[in-house]
Amino acid sequence: MTDFSALLQPDRGQPAHLLHRISAADHEVWRSGQPERVRSALAAARFAAKPGQFALVPGAKPEDWSAVIALSEEQGPWDIAAAAERLPAGTYRLAEGTPGYAALGWLLAQHRFDRYRSEPEPQPQRVLLSGDPARIDAAVRLAQAVALVRDLVDTPAADMGPAELATAAEAIANECGANFTVTQGDALATGYPMVHAVGLAAARGRAPRLIELEWGDPAHPRIAIVGKGVCFDSGGLDIKPGASMLLMKKDMGGAAHALALARLVMQAKLPVRLHLLIPAVENAISAEAFRPGDVLTSRKGITVEIGNTDAEGRLILADALTHACEAKPELIIDFATLTGAARVALGPDLPALFCNDEALAADLLAAGTRTGDPLWRLPLWSGYRDMLKSGIADLNNAGEGGQAGAVTAALFLERFVESGVPWAHLDTFAWRPAAKPGRPKGGEALGLRAAWSLLESRFGS
């Protein structure tokens, strides 16, 4: 993991190169007020304040050079990320103001996933000074959380199966002083039968399990965080086409988000009783695979006819949500790479938010706007519940007709959430198909920062 704490330091007046942040609208006015040496350097670099541009300009002495960087159109966390990816190694401070939320982009722009490179490229260390030292630790923790999601998702399924996911969760539990348990084998078959059924076809070393972590004072408000941990999804007997399997290492992206959010809660010592649940499976193919037409009995006792073995994520989440509700939490948030339908509707950048509580939904949407981590609410439209009808069981796991797939998946999950428990479901992509400043192609945290901001504002001091 990148040592983010070394890249963001308190400003104690130490020597540093200045960073001038310039918007396109202010560019000409700012430029006209600069010395000739600066104007000449900008002209030579063809600097026009286009997003992502930067230029090095000389000072009165050779060692006094500074950088002019154009603000990103997105601004917020990413307005100086492009510069952080390409500036020379050294120490920098902003010419005006403090980094604020842009510190996150500065840190993440310098993170690399190089586990599988025989000769990782050396990374120049670019240190940013902050005149707001009280916010440094929070920025570092948030960068660590995003990097954790990216690294877990980017790890190939061969090295990130249910056992490895449990190991990652146990390491975080030990780091933060949480109670850690894993349920598997006969206890899983009895207590979480749909988790067991989905993961039964996997090889012996990749057996299904329910990963749990509990932390905090039992007297504090209880919150549950649930993450879909399908470590690889072949589609099961309703097998996916080969091209559709290429990114299926990311199908545990919900679990990665849940782990990262739980770690943020514990690191910040929020006054809550935290319950983390990750049903971890591989949806594989063997003689023990569950079949189309099978009927599974869930932990809640609801029977589910299998209309499609590739709609497995909602099955394992159903058992986990049932268990979460048994402890009567004040709030449940689940993350899942659940449906392609959400991506068709909203694309890769916008997680679909489904929520049974208006205040929670409004607060999450506001948190997404505040943090530059937007969500888009879709409806729990009760009129589509009939799409999940089964002729022989209480529910079918795959909606009929192929329409409103994200909605029917959320409606399926809603059946396993107790009435009166505020619940938010984030159908996230957990992947960035094309690089942007501070955000490489690959695993991505989408909805994590919004959820953390919500919890921090509700339960933080």
UniProtKB/TrEMBL annotation:
GO MF, one annotated term: manganese ion binding
SUPFAM superfamilies associated with the record: Zn-dependent exopeptidases
Signal sequence, start to end: none
Span of domain Cytosol aminopeptidase: 308-315
InterPro entries reported for this sequence: Leucine_aapep/pepB (IPR011356), Macro_dom-like (IPR043472), Peptidase_M17_C (IPR000819), Peptidase_M17_N_1 (IPR048816)
Pfam family, any one: Peptidase_M17
Keyword Signal: no
Classification via PROSITE patterns: CYTOSOL_AP
GO cellular component, one term: cytoplasm
Keywords: Aminopeptidase, Hydrolase, Manganese, Protease
Protein name per UniProt: Leucyl aminopeptidase
